[in-house]
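Data availability (excerpt). The following record was deposited with the supplementary files.
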Amino acid sequence: MLSRDLVQRAARASKRTFVSPWQNTARAKNMAAGFFGIMGQGLLSFPLSYMMAGESIGQNLTYQILRMALIEFLVIPATFVILSRYPSRIFLALFQILSTLVFFIDPTSGFLNAIAISCVAGAFWVFFNTNIALNQNRSNHGNEVALSYYLMVVAAALGYFLGGLLLQEDRLTLAIVLGSAFNLIATMLIFTQLPKNDYLGSIKKLIGKDRPSTRITFLFAAMSTISDGCLPVWMRLVGMSPLSGGINMALRPILGMILTPVAGWMAQKGSLRSGQMAVLAIVVGWLLIAGATQIHWLLAFALGMITVGTNLIGPMEATRWFKRRSAPSIMAREIVLGLGRVPAYAIGLPIIFFFPFAFPVLGLAASALFFFGIRTSRKGIAHTPTTPLIP
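Predicted structure:
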């Protein structure tokens, strides 16, 4: 009887996660277009990060830090402000096409690559995240965010694989063209009228060091940057080929499919302790990565464990902001993500270049910082008001 009840609960949870979100046309369109947009960004980001790893540490720091700073602090805010007042698909399409051409001015320039990828990718994230927030089903929001987050992992993994394969075949140009095209098509499909707002004034009300949402997102951004954004650079410096690195990154979603309903349930309930327990899976992953420096096939299992943890934590982090159902909350979240990602790159890249075998220690330290950093929140990792604070 107990096992039958457990199976029925699992079936209901899976339906709420994998079936219910697709029953709304707007949400289904956003998730489908989002899949192609994120796959396109994976096609861009993995080959570029891997290729830039062959340049100097200065070029790498310029590329990684500048692209994060531009996309989070300039491109996304500017997209909200400009397109909320002057909505134009034609203007946005031309901007993204011209930004793609910047890649080919000097393919080894960290400065130019950072400008190009941030301009190509920024508008997509604005519309993708805003549509999630404004079109969510209040009674099923956790599962919808969990599914969207999992589709992001799958799409990025596919993009990483294709990008690694094309780079292995010395077809970086094709990877850039395809990645930019997928991103452009996805952005056009989910283009919508952004609400007008005093965004800068609204953001000040949403961000603060004493706010649990700000603290959790900041720490999660730092932890996930170390375990995701820095990995392609580390893979090259420890001797992995582009194809091998792409395959290892592409294997991550397998365990995520099983755990996505659990992630949705946790995001819906807002369990702080569950979020902390998910960090343990990430810790196991980093311990395996330490072994992968000598035994490369361990990396697939390591990345699988890290994906398990981030699949459980990511939706809960995002749900705090999406439940507000406001465009300024999306903008505020992106700024906080940037505040966490920029220093993570600034610390992670020098360690990778000068002490590559110490990189897993940095991953463990970032995980510990997240674990203890969110302990001070008593309201639960996904607790936020359920009514719009700012329209």
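Summary of structural features: The CA atoms of residues 279 and 321 lie 21 Å apart.
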